[in-house]
Amino acid sequence: MIKIKAVFFDQDGVIIDTERDGHRVAFNQTFKDFGYDFEWDVEYYHELLQVAGGKERMKHHLHTQGFGVEVKPEEVDDLIIRMHKHKTAVFVELIESGDLPLRPGVKRLMKEVNDAGLILGICTTSNERAAQAVVSGMLKEIKFEFVLAGDIVDNKKPDPEIYNLALEKTGVKPEESVVIEDSRNGVLAAAAAGLNIVATTNIYTASENLSDAHIIVTCLGDLGGEKGILKKGSEGLKYDGVLRLEQLMDYFSK
User: Fold this and answer.
1) Are the C-beta atoms of residues 103 and 16 closer than 8 Å to each other?
2) What is the CB neighbour count within 10 angstroms for residue 166?
3) Measured distance CA(229)–CA(207) in Å, rounded
4) pLDDT tens-digit profile of 80-138?
């Protein structure tokens, strides 16, 4: 029988619903602060989420839509780095303001992982400063073995590099690990690394193909709060709207 030893969380869209009202808002404020006259609306940002990484999204927009003014090729890399640094600062301020609450069930499940003595880590393409702001702020009571973020790996999701690095750091086998993801790119990355996958959907990912996940729920759920809806994984899973660590360990140990 397989024994689950580690749980890895993605951040954006999993721990906090950051994409629409966090990152998108911070990007738009950055464009304004840099003097550009365009914004990313909710629908267009959904398209951009298929490109992993904030700097990569800005480059994609520049090369496909343009910034409204000429940007010389030799200036692109420096400009994107400066814009992304500014955007991260705006985003961190949003995080620290408390205006972006944790998604239902996240802290509960993390506490269960801590109480069980399992390894708990974060694997995200989000900037390290932003990831640390979440960990040191809203999740300061939680003990993390590691936080892998941003440019710590060369290849962003759907490449499995960040999850392979997590396995290497912990010495845990793929089948002994559970990852909580929310997007197709994240699910594909976890699948390529051979992990057990739980997907929690949000406004941007509910319509994505998450079929490589073993369990799909609308959220992890809280006993005294919002309950989740099970979309996949009913066989052998006793689910009442709250996904508990004990259930995951039983489900993935078979």
Assistant:
1) yes
2) 24
3) 15
4) 999 999 999 999 898 888 788 899 999 999 999 999 999 999 999 888 888 898 999 88
Which residues belong to the active site?
A: 10, 12
pTM: 0.84
Q: Report, in this order, helix, strand and coil percent for the chain, each rounded to 5.
A: 45, 15, 45
- What would the two tokens of residue 53 be? 């990484």
Please name the amino acid found at residue 73. Answer: P
Encoding tokens for residue 108?
């509960």
**DSSP state at residue 75:** G
- Domains identified in the chain and CATH numbers: 6-17+101-253 (3.40.50.1000), 19-97 (1.10.150.240)
- CA neighbor of 221 nearest in space, from 188, 197, 248: 248
Q: Tell me if 197 sits within 8 A of 214, measured CB to CB.
A: yes
**Does residue 28 register a pLDDT over 90?**
yes
d(CA 129, CA 118): 25
Per the CB < 8 A criterion, the answer to whether 8 and 121 are in contact is yes
β-bridge mates for residue 199, sequence order: 181, 216
Residues composing the chain: 254
